[in-house]
Each structure stands twice: as C-alpha cells, then as structure tokens.
Amino acid sequence: MPLRDHFHSPLDDRRSWDEFHGGWPAVIVQRFRPLLPEGYIVGPNIARGSRVEIDAGTFEDDEVLPEAPASWAPPEPSVAVTIEPPGDTYEVRIYDLRRARQLVAAVEIVSPSNKDRPSSREKFVGKCVAMLQAGVSVSVVDVVTDRHANLYAEVMARFGAADPSPGADAAGIYAATCRLHLSPSGQQRTRLRTWYHPLAVGKPLPTLPLWLSERLVLPLDLEASYEKACADLGIT
Predict the structure, then answer these.
(1) Average pLDDT estimate for 225-233
(2) Percentages of the chain per state (helix, strand, coil), in multiples of 5
(3) Which of 21, 211, 209 is nearest to 103 (CA)?
(4) Three-class DSSP category at 132
(5) How far apart, in whole angstroms, are the C-alpha atoms of residue 167 and residue 152?
(6) DSSP-derived pairing of the beta strands 137-142 and 174-182
(7) Planar angle of CA 143, 144, 147, nearest 5 degrees
(8) Which helix (H) or strand (E) holds 62?
(9) Phi then psi for 140, rounded to 5 degrees?
C-alpha cells in the first residue's frame, strides 16, 4: 500500500498528523520485538513540545498580585530570556540489557516541529549526531510534506560528508539509517555508513537496516508497521 500525505487535504481534514505519529512508534515496537535476540528490549518514546502561548498581559498580571509577607527578597536573576519550547519527539529506542541497558539503536520519526526553524533543526541534528558518536545506530524517517528541510543531509554535513544519492540533499521526504562503524582495531569509530531511500506519496516504504552491534543487524520493515498503524486508525 502507498505512503499517504498526512499533512494536506483530504487526509488531514479527517485525521490529525499527530494521531498517526503517536501510533506509529508503538506499532514499530510491536513488530520489532519478536525479532530481538535475548538481552535486548525495545520501547517507544513520545514527548510533545509545549504549545502553550502566553501573551504579554499574563506577565503584567504577575506584577499586581498581592504580595505575601516575606523577610527576604531574592535578587534580580542573572538571566531572564524567552526560550523556545523543545520540539516533539516520536521515536523507538532499543537497549542492550547486558551492557547496563545501553542504548544501541533509535528510530527517529520526524515531526513538523523538528523542521520548522533553524534552531529546531539544530536540536534534532545535534541529538542524532550525539547518538551516532556514542555508537548508536540511528534511523531517520521523514514523511512530513509541509516543511522543507532535509535533516539527514544536515546530519551528514556535521560529519563533513555528503550523500551523492539522487535527492539526498533535496528537501523531500525520505528514510535513512546512519551508523558509525568501529575501525578493525576497535579503538575508534572511523567510518560513517548510511542507507538512504527517498520516499514519495503513493509509493511503498522501504526496509532499513538497524544495527544492534557491529555484527548484529535486523530489518526495520517500515511498510509493514506503517500500514498497521494506518489500519489501527482507520486511515485508508
């Protein structure tokens, strides 16, 4: 079955994109769990960034609240700045229990908030780079059609590399796995390997390799989990 466009009519008139994004990681977990060898566990991790908007009047009201009796008043803060809320997180994480529950693989499903501004993209890319540098296999799946940025290309750029595959540097949708492999001596990670697949609405999704160790790799069947997630939500 083909990939749908969850961010434009007619589908987004009936189903919110975050309903699907919230369900897909759980389905990936369900389908991936039977493949895991003993000693590995898998689970979803979903965190929504704050979407609360506060206008200036709210802060002004704080100034007129009745003062409570106090014998000491704090000094002015060293820093008082307005910060952006964290972006949404939709991911699947796999841990090796034999190594003190060490994170070994992650599937990052891109949300609109991960792509909507430079600072958001930097946070997402920084997170992926940090995991890769820690030896974690990272798969990035981007089906967001209403934001134009290629986070995979930005991850590659952080390592001073580029993918010559057609469309790998374009602002389209895609799925990719990245992995830093150990050198033969085992002393340092020296080789970045990636598996990139451009996606298209109306086309099936690929199967990605997901590395649990230097020698153990399992198939991440995105098409099967995607179709199950759509079926669970009544998305046809």
Answers:
(1) 95
(2) 30, 25, 45
(3) 211
(4) helix
(5) 11
(6) antiparallel
(7) 150
(8) helix 56-62
(9) -115, 125
